[in-house]
Write a structure and sequence with these properties.
The structure holds 2 protein chains of 2 kinds.
Chain A lengths: L1 H14 L9 H11 E2 L16 H30 L8 H34 L6 H11 L7 H13 L15 H12 L1 H4 L20 H6 L7 H6 L11 H14 L4 H20 L8 H8 L4 H4 L3 H8 L10 H21 L7 H37 L1
Helix pairs in contact in A: 1-2, 2-4, 3-4, 3-5, 3-11, 4-5, 4-6, 5-7, 6-7, 7-17, 11-15, 12-15, 12-16, 16-17
Chain B lengths: L3 E3 L13 E6 L5 E4 L9 E3 L6 E2 L4 E5 L6 E3 L4 E8 L5 E8 L18 H11 L6 E3 L3 E2 L9 E4 L10 H4 L4 H12 L6 E5 L12 E6 L7 H6 L10 E5 H13 L5 E7 L7 E6 L4 H5 L10 E5 L6 E3 L11 E6 L5 E2 L55 H9 L3 H6 L11 H6 L6 H16 L1
Parallel strand pairs in B: 1-14, 2-17, 12-13, 12-15, 13-14, 16-20
Antiparallel strand pairs in B: 3-9, 4-6, 5-8, 6-7, 8-9, 10-11, 10-15, 16-17, 18-19, 18-20
Helix pairs in contact in B: 3-5
The chains are: A mainly alpha, B alpha/beta.
Chain lengths: 393, 448
């Protein structure tokens, strides 16, 4: 392994300012620090620093996504063979490999485009390469329908990284969750290709596109096309990573144990979704509703948690520390409102039977406002203390 | 005794090499030095020239803006050198010690029988005044201000910190004299923060508050915030536990005695224990031949690993420091350091296997373990600050230089040491303590 270090150390002068390859400095530094934790020691303040850094934090989130990725690959194959009617005759391995072949290119495109742009921006700004995209690059494929064309993934990723993040100053500065910006971009820019019934199940090279609606789409139309156990284990059509509640929850446990994901946000989001589900249940028998609406209003409240992107959003999207509320009190409010809004938009909005993406983006926008009020309450407490004391003194 | 105040937030960093409770008395070192750089915000003016002969307690330099605050020789002898840095900034005033030089004489009296003014005058003249700091800001107290009260913490929860219950052994009466002197300086009370099983519970003329909890429970700032948090315009004074002894000795003997018990600790110390030496003793006199043989670089710190100052063996012990810590420098690359399971890597997070061994003690080097980033994680600092403060928002207010916001978010209640743990634990490697000191300097500059 020593030769790698020697290589990087030897090439370092070449990429410094004035060096022959100075335009590669960020890339050089990016790969070097990825392979070797730098030898920099503390100069001011505390002499010891925790071993945790952003690389480890981000890689833990990526690890927590692994169950959802694997399950997403399997389900891609499962849905395909189910729709073409060959499920019984296809082995587990074959199903998985089909999904793997379908999903892998999307992941590769997302990372290649996103990291490419990050490298360029880091070089222009003279920054170190920031690790934020390690996670975004994995989240983007997981929130896409399997049949999204690769060029769309590339365009959406570029949009998310540039407009969603870099214009604000890079990792740590963005207002919205970059992966959801990518998803929302496609949703609004290419609505015909991104919703409806043609994108959810992977076709094969020979057959035409397979049409199949998601259970949420069916429920909005007034039919129940899923069983709760399928929805929980992830054997329903949907975006690549969002279908398996079980796989997502395994990731959630990992995030909570390591303390990287905020359990406050996860819990309050789920609570918000459940509460809204219960409220809708209460109105399910109302004669003011159409028949189809009565069905959607009436699905058991906890089904909202296992259908569509709710759980994926609650665990992996809401907890993005940069775009979420940053105060501990704020997190409770932020998560709860996301849960409420997600189910509300999902059921009431006639155009699109999914609300998680929009609910999170909306609350991302409001997170600074929530924090503002939490901060104000701290300020007021301090002021009150001073005045009360002033009066008694 | 009052009820126990339990603080939940914070963290005890379990470092290897805590000092064994054994005291060795060191001979008077060949040189001692006073460093103006130990006093944040001080503009020193020299009172002596090189080659001057001074007694212990004779002024070496004074504060340009408060000439009554003088800094005196910890031991008698000859001023051998005045070391300066950039722009002729005074770094060290070095004295070659001489046993026969003697001490300046001051009034020997029971402080209880003196007036506040007399006590103040004696402390100012003898050079003990700088041991009294004020909050807000953690700088030397202004003699013309009236503090609401005076706070002393009798325990230090910082990593490997000296145990004052051991240090105070046999000197409680002197401590009491010091407390009595301090009590004369305020119309309010003297508050003593103690921990469980404290040797200080018998001290009179004070209000005792008992605290329990992880670091920073022993920080005087945290103790103030959890009893009577500071409001705008209020001033309190603080004194380190061991420094009260200097004050006590001055009144008991009528001369200054700057001998201090210092813990020599850390994973790179062969046999960590306590040493009796002088304020401003050379670092070499403590560490020479007492460190482990190492093929790697070492970092010697005057003070603890969170707030101390990096020193070389040829430098001198800090004015306020009661410990010297030695850890590995860690200036080496580590192959995919961020990806290792880390059974031997202590962490405030929960992302290393070491979390499974809560009892183990660890060696931590001075490596940054990662590059500096923007604020990304949230909730990390809050867990480590047992005060009603929003640390990240306060830091951001300092970074944008918003004086109103700094004031509103509690800049008066904190100094660097209170947020030092945040700097240790920060994923983004933000220089928390430097930012806080910058904020304090801004406040001093703008509001005085």
């Amino acid at each position: 392994m020593k030769f790698i270090k020697n290589f990087f150390e030897r090439t370092e002068p070449l990429v410094q300012k004035g060096g022959k390859y100075h335009w590669l400095q960020s890339v050089h530094d990016g790969f070097f620090t990825f392979l070797y934790t730098p030898k920099t020691t503390s100069k001011t303040g505390a002499h010891i620093h925790d071993y945790i850094d952003l690389k480890r934090t981000m890689s833990i989130v990526v690890l927590s996504l692994v169950p959802a990725i694997l399950m997403g690959m399997f389900n891609t194959g499962y849905q395909h063979y189910k729709v073409i009617g060959e499920l019984a005759s296809t082995g587990f391995f074959e199903i998985f490999v089909f999904g793997l072949i379908k999903v892998l290119p999307i992941i590769i495109v997302s990372y290649a485009v996103g990291l490419g742009i990050e490298f360029v921006f880091a070089q222009i700004r003279g920054h170190e390469i920031q690790e934020g995209f390690l996670v975004s690059g994995m989240l983007i494929p997981l929130v896409m329908p399997i049949e999204t064309p690769l060029w769309m993934i590339a365009v959406a990723t570029a949009f998310a990284v540039i407009i969603g993040k870099e214009v604000f100053g890079g990792t740590g500065m963005n207002i919205w969750n970059p992966a959801l910006v990518a998803r929302a971009f496609l949703f609004f820019a290419y609505p015909a290709q991104m919703s409806g019934i043609k994108v959810w199940v992977a076709g094969s090279q020979t057959a035409d596109a397979i049409t199949c609606a998601t259970p949420l789409g069916d429920a909005a139309a007034g039919t129940i096309s899923y069983t709760a156990s399928d929805a929980f284990f992830g054997l329903i059509p949907g975006s690549i990573g969002e279908t398996s509640t079980l796989a997502i929850l395994i990731g959630a446990v990992f995030l909570i144990i390591t303390g990287i994901g905020s359990w406050r946000i996860m819990l309050s989001t789920i609570a918000g979704g459940a509460v809204m589900g219960l409220i809708l249940n209460a109105f399910a028998d109302s004669s003011a509703l159409s028949e189809a609406n009565q069905v959607f209003f009436g699905i058991p409240f906890w089904h909202h948690l296992i259908l569509g992107g709710f759980m994926f959003g609650a665990i992996f999207m809401t907890t993005d520390p940069v775009s979420a509320s940053q105060t501990q009190t704020g997190k409770w409010i932020y998560g709860f409102l996301i849960g409420i809004l997600a189910v509300l938009i999902r059921v009431i909005n006639p155009a699109y039977p999914e609300g998680m993406m929009l609910a999170i983006l909306l609350m991302n926008t409001f997170a600074p406002l929530i924090d503002h009020y939490v901060v104000q309450s701290n300020i007021k407490r301090r002021l009150k203390r001073a005045t009360v004391k002033g009066q008694t003194a | 005794m009052s009820e126990v105040i339990r603080l939940k937030k914070g963290l005890n960093i379990k470092l290897k090499g805590s000092a064994e409770k054994v005291l060795e008395k060191l001979p008077v070192p060949a040189t001692v030095a006073l460093k103006p750089t130990d006093f944040p915000g001080l503009t020193p003016k020299l009172s002596v020239k090189a080659d001057a002969v001074v007694k212990a307690g004779d002024a070496l330099f004074y504060d340009k803006y408060h000439p009554e605050i003088v800094f005196t020789a910890p031991y008698g002898g000859k001023v051998v050198s005045i070391n300066r840095g950039e722009r002729r900034k005074i770094l060290e005033v070095v004295i070659e010690t001489d046993k026969d030089a003697g001490s300046a004489s001051f009034k020997k009296a029971d402080p209880s029988s003196l007036s506040g003014e007399e006590v103040k005058e004696q402390l100012l003249k003898s050079g003990l005044w700088p041991f009294i700091k004020k909050r807000p800001y953690g700088v030397i107290a202004s003699p013309n201000q009236k503090p609401l009260s005076i706070y002393i913490s009798t325990f230090d929860t910082a990593p490997l910190a000296p145990d004052y219950n051991f240090v105070i052994n046999g000197q409680l009466a002197t401590f009491q004299t010091g407390v009595n002197a301090l009590a004369k300086l305020t119309e309010g009370k003297v508050y003593l923060g103690v921990n469980k099983d404290s040797a200080f519970t018998g001290v009179k003329n004070v209000v005792i508050n008992t605290f329990e909890g992880p670091h920073p429970a022993g920080n005087v700032g945290v103790q103030i915030a959890n009893t009577k948090p500071l409001n705008k315009g209020e001033v309190v004074w603080t004194v380190n536990a061991q420094d009260v002894l200097f004050i006590g000795r001055l009144f008991e003997t009528g001369s200054v005695d700057f001998s201090r018990i210092v813990a020599l600790a850390g994973s790179e110390v062969a046999a960590p224990k306590y040493y009796q030496t002088l304020v401003g003793a050379p670092v070499a006199s403590l560490v020479q031949e007492r460190l482990v043989e190492a093929s790697y670089h070492l970092r010697i710190i005057s003070g603890n690993v969170l707030t101390g100052t990096k020193v070389g063996p040829q430098q001198y012990l800090g004015f306020y420091d009661s410990m010297v810590t030695v850890i590995p420098e860690g200036d080496e690359y580590e192959f995919v350091g961020w990806a290792t399971p880390g059974a031997d890597k202590f962490t405030a997070s929960k992302t290393f296997v070491s979390k499974l061994f809560p009892k183990k003690e660890y060696t931590i080097n001075a490596n940054m373990h990662g590059g500096e980033r923007a604020f990304v994680m949230s909730g990390q600092y809050e867990k480590l600050v047992p005060m009603d403060i929003l640390p990240v928002h306060l830091l951001k207010a300092v970074l944008v230089n918003d004086i109103d916001k700094m004031e509103q978010l509690g800049i008066y209640e904190v100094i660097e040491e209170d947020l030092a743990l945040c700097e240790y634990a920060c994923t983004s490697k933000i220089e928390v303590q430097k930012i806080i000191r910058d904020g304090i300097n801004t406040m001093i500059k703008e509001l005085g």
